[in-house]
Structures are given as structure tokens and as C-alpha cells.
């Protein structure tokens, strides 16, 4: 019986109707455990079965989640065969999107318990979610929301799904009336039952079945076990075996374990309300009940059942390795865990489930007997690789240190050299620049004593990258040339692209055009070979040098193309990094609201790495400083990142932030000057970092006598132009103020007026008695024509949010109460 769910049911129905017209969506059905999410989805699936294709799947509560488990469920339900060993997740996701989109009727996909999903499944959900709006798909996700970890997983699942394609449905507790309806056939006081259960549908149902209002959440365990103990022995055997399978199990598997009596036992468990059928599967009606039964088995019996399950699954030969690892752990079969772990982890890693891969390897390395593994060092390197991909850099370095000790003890110089190169990279990511340099040099020295191979080529390219990041041009080019030459001889386009990328970014300091051509070559090579991370890095470096050169239009094109490339391939780290530079670019060209939106998008992503957060943080802080908004927290975060990696490219943007804040507030000028001087002393070419040189002149003690026509910023940098105009000996303060007012740069405008108190009066007279700026008069003209903010934004070529600021200012200055009132006042005064 489905009570008090008509509103949620209707919303699902409307979503399906929209999907039928090609406007698909993702629906997140949220609520506490036992609240009735599954019952709602089951009822809806039954209702629409005749007019939609329904595909069901679920995430399992395995100790280590199966990578892409729900995806294999969907493929099986749709009778589609997918290769589990697929090495390119995006290609796999694209294939799945294709069969989900096929057909003339909408497709309802249900993925339950997304809070248990592995990372690859979350990537799959986001991949579909980004594209669902143009399909006939409705993807329904159920998730718990009562714990912070569950909420975090839900946020991860729906991150980057466009707002217009995402629907959230919160399933509320049952009311007293609904509880009374469920308890109508009993003598239970519905109000007492509602107080005891909080309206949780599962608790209410269990209490009703037990016939007692005394059954509270704390007493659910006794209730479940009481019902289980009433079952006949064959049915209880079914229940016990089903309990060791997280989420669900095929009925055929239970039959294979128990023989011909299993079928009747399954039906008895269903009749008792403990199990339910879902296609060829059976599962507990609620996960809480499964855990109660599993715990009741006792350690010895649980090990025995898992051992029998493991034997059956191994004889079948078609079970995903991660399921085998789960049952091997429960059965205490550590030798099997050791045997399965490398391949299981490799499969997980190939589809992007790096946390699951790390968990599998940790289970192998931490199990009894793990220290005696002959290939332990290789497994430690594999584990370190997965740890680094999940951001656990310190743990990855610990693993590599242990692996290096083994390689040295056994005299394996090739693995030792490659391990040293990895240590260099990890130390750099951890902000340990000196250690990164030392390990990098040691890696090359070790590998140079061996026949030339890809390990040496990559070690040399690593040194080139380190030098490039430190703006050391000659070492970057020297190491890069050696790496590129060897990569060509070895026919390794991946290493060649990596080396060209380093060389192009470094060469840009001395020959901008040649450097760009090299970066373009690195990008072309990566795109041709579908070397995704190399392509993303080339897009990033190419856009960065264009922004640095103030070549804003081409930079915008490269960023747009690169962000699209990374979004399509779910390269989120690189997408976020380019998104941060998109914010910087938009800040420069005066599209401040759009810049803030891009920066916030990066900073609100909990998975965004420091690499991306730093430029986003600085861009947003500069915007807020200019407008007089609170920026202290952002400045402090930027300082923390700078301490971890004080490189020129980071130091330069941070110096700009301090300079602008000092100029506007009049405080911290000496500190800002020191940072600017440090950047100028470190730059490899005096023609670079023109923004830093500009602010160094602005903050010099005699700025009014220093700025000349040569310092004038390009026309597409309005804020810097306003600063230039206000600081010139022949200052054009009126024009500077007009620009700053148009940008809503309130704090900067106050700064310009602070030293020229008489200017305010001249500006006010120029604005007329109503104190409207030229831009506000334009806005008022459009208001009088009845245009919306979006229409005004399109007409004036500015963002809707900027129009919002201007409209508010117009209404305030005219002392009006609304847009229409402002237009009426303007007509009365002859302003329009």
C-alpha cells in the first residue's frame, strides 16, 4: 500500500511525460533509510511499464564497491553485451547512452542506493546527466540523506548536471493519518506508533506486522529475527544465504547453493515479507533487515556460507573480481585475495574507479601473509598509483618508499629509476619542490646507466616539466629535447606530447610564437592519438600563455574548446583548472558576473584540486576586492596554496591580488610592492608579465609621474584602463569613474574619489539632478520600453546580473518602488 506519495508520484509522471518529448532529466529521490524510496520507485515502475522501457539497477553495499555495477545491471536488463575490460570509460558510457536512447518510447532508468556507488558509477551518472536533457531518458536515483557521507556521495553524483535537467524529490515521513491507515486492522494506537517510529515507513510496517506499538527503531532487530525464526528450515536457509549478498542475489544462485527446496523457501520468505522479487533477483525488503540476519549468523557460520558462495562463483567463472574479493574477505581466504587483487584493481582503474582499485589493493597488502608476496613491490607501486589518483599523495609516497627499498635490495635498477621518477612527481604535487628536483635528478642518473627505454624518456621529460614550472627556460628545453628525441626513436607519441608540452610552455618565455607552435604540436599529437590527459594539459598551457600575452580572444576560443573536450571526457581536474582560467579571462575583459560564476563553479566542487582552486580563488578575491565585498577568506586560502608551491605563475597572480587590494585600501602597500618586485626579478623575459609591471608602476611612490602612454592597457581590459586613467598625470577621472561605475567596482570607485573630494561634485553635476550615470540612463530607456533584464543584457552586450545591479541603482536613485514605477517617474521628469 502506497500512502501519501501522490505528490512525488505526480512529479515523476511529469518528468516521464517531458522525457517522451525529448526533454529527459535526472531525478534524485532522497530520504532516510526506510522512508519508502524503493516503494515509490517500484510503484511508479509498475504504473508506467506499458508506456516506457523500464531498466532497474542498484548499488551494492560491498566492502569494496563493484566498479560500474549498476551499468552492468542496466546492460543485462536491456539484453545488451558490454565488454567488462573496456579501457576507455567515456567510450563505454557513450555506448550505454546509445542503447538507452534507442527506441520510440522513453526509458526509465532506476539506480537505487547511489550513496553506495563506486566512483566510476558516479562518473557514469554525471556523464548521462550532462547529456540527458536532449534524450528520452529519465534517470531516477535513490539515496539516503541522513548522514554527511551519504549527502557527500549524492552531491558527487549530481555534480555538473545542469540545473534544468535535475529534479530533487524529498520523501517525507508518513503522517499520523497514514500510520493509522496502515494499522487499521490491528489494535495498535496510531499516535503511539507514529511517536515510536517517527513515521518511517519501514519501522511502521515492521511494528504493524509484529502487532505491537512497542516496536521502536531500537527494537527492529528483535522483530526481524522473530519473523525469521518462524520460518521453516528450508526458508530460513534461503534467508541466511541471501543475507551474505549485499543488495541482491539471483534466485538461480540460491537454488544452486541449496538444491530443489530453494524455490519454495524463496516463496515462503517473500510471503513472510522478508524478501521481494526484482526480476530474476531476490533481495531483502530492506537493507536493515539483511544486516540484522547477517549479523545473527555468527562469525563461524558466516565464514562457512561465504566460503560455499565463493566456491560456487569461482566454478561459474563469470563473477566480477570485486565480488569474489568481497566473499573471499568474508570467508578468510586471503590467498585468493592476493591472487585476485591485481587484475581486479586494474579493471577498476580502467573504468575510473580508482578508490575501489585502491581498496582492493589495500585488502591484498593488508591481509595476513601479504608481506611474503614475491611481487609485493610491484603491487605497492600499483597501489601508490591509485592513491595518487585519488589525492592521497602522502600515502602514495609511503608506498613508493617501501617499493624502492625492495627494488634496491633486489638490484632492479629499471623499476628503481621509474619509482624515483614517480617520487619526483608526487613530491611536486605535495608542494615539496626541493625533494621533487632531487628525486628527478636521481631517477635520470639511475636510468642513464641502463639501455635507453621509455622510462628514461619519461624521467627526462619530468625534469623538463619541473624546470618549465619553475620558469627555468634552458634546462626545460635541454631535458625536453632529449626526452623528445628518445620518444621519437621509441615511437612513443604520449611521451613526445608530454615533452613538447613542456618545451612549448618554456620556449614561450623567450620566443612566444615558437612556444605557441610547439604547444599546438603537442595538442595535435595528443588529439590524434586520443591521449586525453596530454591533450587537456596542452589546452591548458596554450590558453595560459595566451592570457599572459593579453591575447584574449584566441585564449577564449582555446578555453572554450578545451573545457568542452574535458567535459565530454569527464576529465574533471583539467576542466576545473581551465574553468579557473576562464574566470581570470572574463575578469580581465570586464565580464565580472560571468567570471564570478566560473570561479564559484570551481570552488563549490569538493573534488576540485588545489591546482584548480588557486587561480579560481585569486580571480574571485580580486573581483570582490574591487567591489568592496568580503574577500578575506579567499585571500587566506590563496596564501596557503602559495606556501605549498611558491612558483612564478602562482606568485604573479597572487601579487596582482595584493597590489589591487593595497591600491584600493591604502594598506599593505609595502608588502604588495615586495611581491611585485619578486615577480619582476624572477621573470625570464622583461616583456612578460605586463600586468605585474603595470601594477608595480601604479604602486610606486611617484606613480603619477611614472605612468606613460606605453603603460596603457589594451582596450578590452576595462578595470586596468580605469586605473590607468585615474593615475596618469593628466588624469581623466570622469572617464575612469564611468568605467568603474559600469563595472559596479564600488570600492575602486571610492578609491578614485578619496584623493579628489572635489571630483564627486563635478561627477554629480555631470550626472544631472537624478545622479544617473550614462549607463543607468541607457538602462532606464530600456525599462521604459518594458524590456526584461535578459533582453536589456542582450541589447547592451552585458550580463543579466550586471543589469540587475544597474536596475537596482536606478530604482534607488529615483526613489521608486518598482521597475514600472521607475519608468513612470522618468517619464514625469522628462528623463526618457
SS field, number of helical segments: 44
The shape is: globular
Classification by helices and strands: mainly alpha
How large, in whole angstroms, is the Cα Rg?
32 Å
Question: How much beta, percentage-wise?
Answer: under 5%
Outline the structure in words.
- This protein starts with 5 loop residues before the first helix and ends with a helix.
- α23 packs parallel to α25 (493-507) and α24 (473-490) runs antiparallel to α25.
- The longest helix is centred in the middle third of the chain and has 18 residues, at 299-316.
- The strands form two sheets. It has a five-stranded parallel beta sheet, sandwiched between helices.
- It is mainly alpha-helical.
- The protein is built from 44 helices and eight strands.
Quick structural gist:
The protein is mainly alpha-helical. The chain is built from 44 helices and 8 strands.
What is the fold's blueprint, element by element?
Blueprint: H1 6-20, E1 25-30, H2 37-48, E2 53-58, H3 69-77, H4 89-101, E3 107-112, H5 119-131, E4 137-143, H6 148-158, E5 166-170, H7 176-182, H8 190-197, H9 201-210, H10 220-229, H11 233-243, E6 249-250, H12 251-258, H13 262-271, E7 275-278, E8 281-284, H14 287-296, H15 299-316, H16 321-331, H17 334-350, H18 354-366, H19 376-389, H20 393-410, H21 413-429, H22 433-448, H23 454-469, H24 473-490, H25 493-507, H26 512-528, H27 532-548, H28 552-568, H29 572-588, H30 592-603, H31 610-627, H32 632-644, H33 648-665, H34 669-682, H35 690-698, H36 703-706, H37 718-727, H38 733-743, H39 746-754, H40 757-767, H41 774-784, H42 789-796, H43 800-813, H44 819-828
Parallel strand pairs: 1-4, 1-5, 2-3, 3-4
Antiparallel strand pairs: 6-8, 7-8
Amino acid at each position: 500500500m502506497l500512502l501519501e506519495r501522490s505528490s512525488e508520484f505526480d512529479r515523476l509522471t511529469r518528468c516521464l511525460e517531458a522525457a517522451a518529448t525529448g526533454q529527459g532529466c535526472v531525478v534524485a529521490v532522497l530520504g532516510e533509510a526506510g522512508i519508502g524510496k524503493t516503494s515509490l520507485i517500484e510503484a511508479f515502475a509498475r504504473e508506467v511499464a506499458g508506456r516506457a522501457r523500464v531498466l532497474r539497477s542498484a548499488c551494492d553495499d560491498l566492502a569494496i564497491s563493484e566498479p560500474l555495477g549498476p551499468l552492468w545491471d542496466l546492460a543485462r536488463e536491456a539484453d545488451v553485451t558490454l565488454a567488462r575490460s573496456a579501457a576507455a570509460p567515456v567510450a563505454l558510457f557513450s555506448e550505454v547512452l546509445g542503447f538507452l536512447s534507442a527506441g520510440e518510447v522513453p526509458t526509465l532508468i532506476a539506480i537505487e542506493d547511489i550513496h553506495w556507488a563506486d566512483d566510476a558509477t558516479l562518473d557514469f551518472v554525471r556523464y548521462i546527466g550532462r547529456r540527458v536533457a536532449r534524450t528520452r531518458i529519465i534517470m531516477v536515483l535513490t539515496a539516503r540523506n541522513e548522514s554527511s557521507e551519504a549527502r557527500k556521495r549524492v552531491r558527487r553524483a549530481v555534480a555538473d548536471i545542469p540545473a534544468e535537467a535535475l529534479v530533487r524529490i524529498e520523501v517525507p515521513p508518513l503522517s499520523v493519518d497514514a500510520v493509522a491507515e496502515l494499522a487499521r486492522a490491528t489494535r495498535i494506537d496510531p499516535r503511539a506508533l507514529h511517536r515510536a517510529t517517527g513515521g518511517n515507513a519501514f519501522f511502521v510496517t515492521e511494528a504493524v506486522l509484529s502487532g505491537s506499538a512497542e516496536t521502536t527503531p531500537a527494537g527492529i532487530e528483535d522483530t526481524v529475527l522473530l519473523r525469521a525464526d518462524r520460518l521453516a528450515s528450508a526458508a530460513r536457509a534461503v534467508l541466511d544465504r541471501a543475507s551474505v549478498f549485499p543488495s541482491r542475489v539471483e534466485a538461480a544462485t540460491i537454488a544452486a547453493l541449496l538444491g530443489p527446496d530453494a524455490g519454495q523457501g524463496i516463496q515462503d520468505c517473500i510471503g513472510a515479507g522478508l524478501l521481494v522479487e526484482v526480476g530474476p533477483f531476490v533481495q531483502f525488503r530492506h537493507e536493515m533487515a539483511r544486516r540484522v540476519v547477517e549479523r545473527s549468523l555468527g562469525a563461524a557460520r558466516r565464514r562457512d556460507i561465504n566460503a560455499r558462495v565463493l566456491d560456487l562463483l569461482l566454478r561459474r567463472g563469470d563473477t566480477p573480481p570485486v565480488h569474489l574479493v568481497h566473499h573471499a574477505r568474508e570467508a578468510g581466504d586471503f590467498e585468493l585475495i592476493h591472487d585476485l587483487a591485481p587484475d581486479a584493481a586494474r579493471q577498476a582503474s580502467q573504468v575510473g574507479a580508482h578508490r575501489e582499485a585502491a581498496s582492493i589493493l589495500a585488502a591484498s597488502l593488508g591481509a595476513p601473509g601479504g608481506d611474503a608476496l614475491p611481487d609485493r613491490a610491484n603491487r605497492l607501486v600499483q597501489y601508490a598509483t591509485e592513491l595518487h589518483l585519488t589525492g592521497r599523495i602522502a600515502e602514495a609516497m609511503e608506498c613508493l618508499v617501501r617499493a624502492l627499498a625492495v627494488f634496491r635490495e633486489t638490484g632492479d635498477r629499471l623499476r628503481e629509476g621509474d619509482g624515483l621518477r614517480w617520487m619526483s612527481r608526487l613530491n611536486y604535487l605535495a608542494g615539496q619542490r626541493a625533494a621533487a628536483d632531487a628525486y628527478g635528478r636521481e631517477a635520470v642518473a639511475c636510468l642513464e646507466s641502463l639501455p635507453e627505454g621509455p622510462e628514461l624518456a619519461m624521467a627526462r621529460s619530468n625534469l623538463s616539466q619541473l624546470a618549465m614550472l619553475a620558469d627555468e627556460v634552458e634546462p626545460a628545453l635541454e631535458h625536453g629535447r632529449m626526452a623528445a628525441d628518445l620518444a621519437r626513436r621509441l615511437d612513443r607519441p604520449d611521451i613526445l606530447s608530454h615533452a613538447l608540452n613542456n618545451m612549448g610552455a618554456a620556449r614561450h618565455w623567450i620566443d612566444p610564437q615558437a612556444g605557441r607552435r610547439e604547444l599546438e604540436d603537442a595538442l595535435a599529437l595528443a588529439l590524434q592519438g586520443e591521449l586525453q590527459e596530454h591533450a587537456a594539459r596542452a589546452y591548458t598551457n596554450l590558453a595560459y600563455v595566451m592570457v599572459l600575452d593579453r591575447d584574449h580572444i584566441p585564449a577564449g576560443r582555446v578555453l572554450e574548446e578545451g573545457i568542452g573536450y574535458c567535459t565530454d571526457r569527464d576529465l574533471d581536474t583539467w576542466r576545473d583548472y581551465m574553468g579557473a582560467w576562464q574566470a581570470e579571462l572574463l575578469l580581465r575583459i570586464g565580464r565580472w558576473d560571468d567570471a564570478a560564476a566560473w570561479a564559484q563553479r570551481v570552488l563549490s566542487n569538493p573534488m576540485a584540486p588545489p591546482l584548480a582552486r588557486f587561480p579560481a580563488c585569486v580571480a574571485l578575491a580580486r573581483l570582490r576586492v574591487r567591489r568592496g565585498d568580503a574577500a578575506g577568506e579567499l585571500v587566506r586560502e590563496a596564501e596557503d596554496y602559495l606556501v605549498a608551491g611558491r612558483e612564478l605563475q602562482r606568485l604573479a597572480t597572487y601579487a596582482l591580488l595584493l597590489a589591487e587590494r593595497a591600491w584600493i585600501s591604502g594598506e599593505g602597500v609595502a608588502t604588495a610592492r615586495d611581491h611585485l618586485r619578486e615577480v619582476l626579478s624572477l621573470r625570464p623575459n622583461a616583456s612578460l608579465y605586463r600586468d605585474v609591471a603595470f601594477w608595480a608602476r601604479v604602486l610606486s611612490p611617484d606613480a603619477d609621474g611614472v605612468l606613460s602612454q606605453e603603460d596603457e592597457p589594451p582596450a578590452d581590459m576595462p578595470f586596468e584602463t580605469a586605473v590607468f586613467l585615474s593615475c596618469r598625470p593628466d588624469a581623466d577621472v570622469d572617464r575612469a569613474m564611468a568605467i568603474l561605475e559600469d563595472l559596479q567596482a564600488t570600492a575602486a570607485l571610492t578609491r578614485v574619489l578619496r584623493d579628489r573630494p572635489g571630483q564627486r561634485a563635478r561627477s554629480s553635476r555631470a550626472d544631472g539632478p537624478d545622479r544617473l550615470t550614462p549607463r543607468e540612463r541607457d538602462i532606464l530607456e530600456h525599462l521604459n520600453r518594458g524590456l526584461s533584464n535578459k533582453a536589456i543584457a542582450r541589447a547592451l552586450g552585458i550580463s543579466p546580473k550586471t543589469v540587475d545591479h544597474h536596475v537596482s541603482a536606478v530604482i534607488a536613485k529615483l526613489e521608486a518602488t518598482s521597475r514600472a514605477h521607475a519608468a513612470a517617474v522618468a517619464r514625469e521628469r522628462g528623463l526618457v
